[in-house]
Design goal:
InterPro entries: Alkaline_phosphatase_core_sf (IPR017850), Sulfatase (IPR050738), Sulfatase_CS (IPR024607), Sulfatase_N (IPR000917). By secondary structure, the chain is an alpha/beta fold. The protein contains 12 helices and 20 strands. It has helices at about 90-95, 110-120, 155-160, 225-245, 280-295, 320-350, 390-400, 415-425, 435-440, 470-475, 580-595, 605-630, and strands at about 1-5, 10-15, 65-70, 100, 105, 165-170, 195-200, 215, 215-220, 250-255, 360-365, 445, 455-460, 465, 485, 485-490, 510-515, 520-525, 530, 560-565.
């Protein structure tokens, strides 16, 4: 504890180390202090009474400001900070003054990654096996899309420890049925510990016509690119807070829609990289893996995985194909550099108000690997995957509308699959593939001038998004409250990475981790990884080239085995060589699945089929009932 003066009277203030055993007051949407028994004196009159006020909770003196940056749909080999060919000067600077983590992992798709990140618990433990969307959630403990109250978020934890808490950009974990202006708001950011929120609640939105929310209400956007407006708002939150309480730390969760589709940039950015990608995706891969070796991010002996069988060699494409595909990549690259510049605005503001040296940054470059949702041709305005447009028709349309790529008219712009593979260098496969490093392996940067000595250092310890919250708490010298809003809290499941800050050769402490998305699954243990692709290589959710359907039988899924200690990018399947090791890991997956509520294994095609049948039965029952009523009349 420490003391300070309130209205001239010395008061006792509890700090974080004492919070663990304190019960929070009922939540009313505002910051709460921990109740104590009344310590004043209540007499019959004011004269024989002694006043006392509940002391406010304050963060320990000198506590760092904390900023989490989470980008969307960025592959490992996109940003220049990790060897990519897309310039990201802000990320480069933070990494060069901080640490690059090369063996960090996400959950392979947005909502599970975000739920795990915000809570420090595995995705199914916080009920986000899929999404919070009605069409992609199911009525089972690990799948209903509703983060339980006993799995408090980082914002709730930090607010209990005396922080102001802000979030801007994509939230993505509010159930669809709660996401109207009628609420309820307990699963909106404001109900999960954030003092202010400005952004969108869903998984995707148009960058010029966003489904925009401020605090607890939908608002009308102003027509500017959303990434600019969320940055303005973040800076405004910080400025107002520091003017009102200069010594109070803040937490900012900066999670832009970038670089998720639609790829849309202001006109002044659209031609920033004109002609830069004319050499194509094969040359891109070769250059990036060379860069990554020079930076010491991957083994010097590393080799590229074979080009995916469904992606054509760049030198076999027609001039028109090269023109259209390159334009998609020019816009994507501009989009990534544009969001890097927006983060740079926050860095510059903190520097200007002399707060940068006491600000802890975690920059996660991608909530999953590069997106395969742009299909083989790239997408402008087509709907979700599974549309019935042929490749030939899609390409013809893209060629005719090439000038709309990256503009407000391109309401679903996403680049072709060849660029997804390229920006995922040096890994194979992509977003949604929980079985592959290409779906789960993302760059992490940690920056904190006061706490990092090995500036520009590289760390290879195994990590996962669940590790960010415990790492944050250890940096700040804080602990998990025993209760939040009166509810006893479950333990964190992540492992702090703090041990690796000053020891580049420290043994990894996070030694076991599962992955699961849309049936594809994997289990990691001490460098070994067993994995099964439920929809091998699928791009379109319904069909593959030359196939009428995709095999969806879990019992027929083929498991592979990799030793990532020797084969970090999964080039050699060892399943037949070490069948006992594979069997051991499969058994571990089963134990893990039971522990974290992964079961039942869900294929969404089955869910949609069951719901369609139920809807048909309901409709038939209603029709029969109406006919019966008509007969009675």
């Amino acid at each position: 504890m420490h003391f300070h003066k309130i209205n001239g009277v010395t008061k006792m203030v509890l700090v974080s180390s004492m919070l663990a055993g304190i019960t929070a007051l009922p939540f009313d949407g505002k910051a709460q202090t921990a109740p104590q028994s009344y310590q004043g004196v209540v007499g019959k009159t004011y004269a024989d009474s002694k006043e006392w006020w509940q002391p406010a909770v304050k963060a320990p003196a000198g506590s760092p400001n904390i900023v989490w940056v989470l980008l969307d749909d960025v592959g490992f080999g996109a940003a220049s900070a990790f060897g990519g060919l897309i310039p990201t000067p802000t990320f480069d600077s933070l990494a060069n003054q901080g640490l690059r983590y090369t063996n960090f992992h996400t959950c392979a798709i947005c909502a599970p990654t975000r739920a795990a990140l915000l809570t420090g618990r595995n995705q199914h433990s916080v009920h986000m096996g899929g999404f919070a969307h009605t069409a992609l959630s199911a009525g089972f403990p690990g799948w209903d899309g509703r983060i339980p109250a006993d799995k408090g978020t980082v914002a709730e934890i930090l607010r209990e420890n005396g922080y102001n808490t802000f979030a801007v950009g994509k939230y993505g974990v509010t159930p669809d049925e709660d996401a109207t202006d009628a609420g309820p708001f307990d699963r909106w950011p404001s109900g999960k510990g954030f003092d202010h929120f400005y952004g969108f609640l869903g998984s995707q939105t148009d960058q010029y016509k966003p489904d925009l929310v401020e605090d607890n209400a939908h608002i009308t956007p102003d027509g500017r690119n959303l990434n600019e407006t969320i940055t303005d708002k973040a800076i405004s939150y910080i400025s107002k807070q520091k003017k009102a309480a200069p010594d109070k730390p803040f937490f900012l969760y900066y999670a832009p829609g970038a670089t998720h589709a639609p790829h849309q940039v202001p006109p002044s950015w659209a031609d920033l990289y004109k002609g830069k990608f004319d050499e194509g995706w094969d040359v891109y891969r070769d250059k990036v893996i060379a860069n990554q070796k020079k930076l010491g991010l991957i083994p010097a002996t590393a080799q590229l995985p074979t080009r995916n069988q469904y992606i054509k060699a760049w030198n076999t494409l027609t001039p028109d194909q090269k023109k259209v595909y390159a334009r998609f990549m020019e816009i994507y690259a501009a989009y990534l550099t544009y969001i890097d510049a927006q983060v740079g605005r926050i860095v510059d503001h903190l520097k200007e108000i002399k707060q940068l040296d006491n600000t802890l940054f975690f920059v996660i470059i991608g909530d999953n690997g590069a997106s395969k949702e742009g299909t083989f041709q790239g997408v402008l305005n087509r709907g979700p995957l599974g549309g019935k447009v042929s490749d030939e028709e899609q390409f013809k349309s893209n060629l005719e509308k090439i000038g709309e790529i990256g503009t407000p008219s391109g309401s679903n712009t996403n680049y072709p699959l060849g660029w997804a593979q390229a920006t995922n260098t040096p890994f194979k496969y992509w977003k949604q593939d929980a079985n592959a490093e290409g779906g789960t392996h993302n760059p992490l940067i940690i920056f904190y001038p006061k706490g990092i000595k090995d500036k520009g250092g590289v760390r290879n310890q195994y990590g996962h998004v669940v590790d960010i919250l415990p790492t944050t708490l250890e940096f700040a010298g804080l602990s998990l409250p025993e209760k939040i809003k009166g509810i006893k809290q479950d333990t964190l499941q992540g492992t702090s990475l703090y041990y690796s800050l000053d020891n580049a050769t420290a043994q990894s402490r996070h030694t076991e981790q599962y992955y699961y998305i849309f049936g594809s699954r994997a289990i990691y243990k001490d460098g070994w990884k067993a994995a099964a692709a439920h929809h091998p290589d699928y791009i379109d959710i319904n069909v593959l080239p030359g196939k009428d359907s995709v095999e969806r039988n879990f019992d027929k899924d083929v498991w592979e085995l990799y030793n990532l200690n020797d084969d970090f990018n999964e080039r050699t399947d060892l399943a037949k060589k070490y069948p006992e090791k594979l069997k051991e890991l499969q058994g571990l997956f089963d134990v893990t699945a039971k522990k974290y509520n992964i079961y039942p294994l869900i294929d969404w095609a089955d869910v949609w089929k069951r719901r369609a049948q139920a809807a048909k039965q309901t409709a038939a029952s209603t029709t029969t009932g109406n006919e019966g009523n008509a007969a009675k009349k």
